[in-house]
Write a structure and sequence with these properties.
Blueprint: E1 22-24, E2 30-32, H1 33-43, E3 59-60, H2 62-74, H3 76-96, H4 102-112
Antiparallel strand pairs: 1-2, 1-3
């Protein structure tokens, strides 16, 4: 499979590979865990914000993991549609409800899509 066929959101911005262990940093950026752990060991900062970052401040991005697994097993079209729904619903939910976390809103939207 060519990288041009992979939804850009599924690529780690550090390694430019499909994320197999997606995690989220405090800045909201998603990365593949091994690439981010190497980054933290070398730079001790968040790649997005530049703020100090420790490995215990990184959490699994379960919604992204599920989307990538669905994309890998069911084909790009299904997962890509769900990704667009997830992003749209997360934005709507974050702006119009008491949920102030786009990640939480996105995860909730994923489970209702």
């Amino acid at each position: 499979m060519q990288l041009s066929q992979v939804p850009p959101a599924f690529l780690c911005p550090i390694s430019m590979q499909v994320m197999t262990q997606p995690v989220v940093a405090p800045s909201g950026g998603s990365f593949n865990r091994p690439a981010l752990m190497d980054w933290i060991r070398q730079h001790h900062t968040d790649p997005v914000s530049g703020a100090p970052l420790r490995s215990d401040q990184v959490f699994p991005n379960l919604a992204m993991r599920d989307l990538i697994h669905e994309w890998a097993s069911n084909g790009c079209d299904v997962a890509h549609r769900r990704l667009h729904v997830w992003v749209r619903q997360a934005a709507d939910s974050a702006s119009s409800s008491r949920c102030h976390s786009p990640l939480k809103a996105g995860r909730e939207a994923l489970h209702t899509a």
